[in-house]
Amino acid sequence: TYAMIPTNVKDVIRDFVFGMEDGLVSNLGLVLGVYVGGGDAFTIILAGFASMFTGALSMSEGSYLESKSQREVYEHEIEATREELNKNPRKCYMEMRSSLVKEGLTKHEVDHLLKKSSRYKHPEFVCNYMVQKKVGISKEKLEVPLKNAIAMFFSFLVGSAFPILPFLVSKLNSLELWPAAVISSVLTIAALFGVGLAKTSYTKLNWIKSGLEVVFIGLAAGVIGYFVGWLVGHLG
């Protein structure tokens, strides 16, 4: 069981961006493909909602298992390193000494640290240092599986809704479908640009470049879905 920790926007920004982007892109391609393939409003909406919920569940499960596996690997390494430290502390200290020398410290500086500082001789510090070197991430940076899964689930749902909404409005008001297809594309493009802007809160990239990058990726998926639907529709 993994305890939830206090979160802010930065804690879930990766899953938010990934979930929103995937929901927007996959559902835009789907609804446009079904539309150009000859599907009516009900078929388009049904396909969109089915994709929305199955995709959200699949993505959240994947995010949960990824985060859980990462934590389990780290915890296994901690246990193995603690056992090794108890069995052969000198070997562990020598490995740590060798690693610090490779990072640029002189042997004299390393010996000074390990001999003079109680912190560097503390078993917990040695254990954490060695595990971080093996796994490539510190314990503080580990993700919380349930938090990631929830963020992924709801962000995918929200992203998937944008391409469907215009067709839903069209169905409820008995309107033509082509304006819904246009509005769906425009809404999705605007949302994708917004996702690109959200990315800059942690990538620190240029906001225009980031927004356009996400938009072009989304448009590529929409174009592919459109032509697949067109092709299948003509084959039928």
Q: What would your notes on this structure say?
A:
It is a single chain. With 236 residues, the protein is mostly helical. It is 85% helix and 0% strand. It has nine helices and no strands. The chain has helices at 9-36, 41-87, 89-102, 107-116, 118-121, 123-135, 145-172, 177-203, 207-235. Helix 1 (9-36) packs antiparallel against helix 2 (41-87). It is elongated and about 80 Å long. The model is unreliable at 1-7 (pLDDT under 50).
Précis, in short:
With 236 residues, the protein is mainly α. Helix content is 85%, strand content 0%. The protein contains 9 helices and no strands.
Key structural traits:
single chain, 236 residues, mainly alpha, disordered N terminus
Summarize the main sheet: none
Note the run of SSEs as H and E.
Answer: HHHHHHHHH
What proportion of the residues is helical, as a percent range? over 70%
| N-to-C span | 52 Å
Count of strand segments: 0
Task: From the alpha carbons, calculate the radius of gyration and give it in angstroms.
Answer: 25 Å
Topology overview:
Elements (H helix, E strand, L loop, with lengths): L8 H28 L4 H47 L1 H14 L4 H10 L1 H4 L1 H13 L9 H28 L4 H27 L3 H29 L1
Helix pairs in contact: 1-2, 1-7, 1-8, 1-9, 2-3, 2-6, 2-7, 3-4, 3-6, 7-8, 8-9
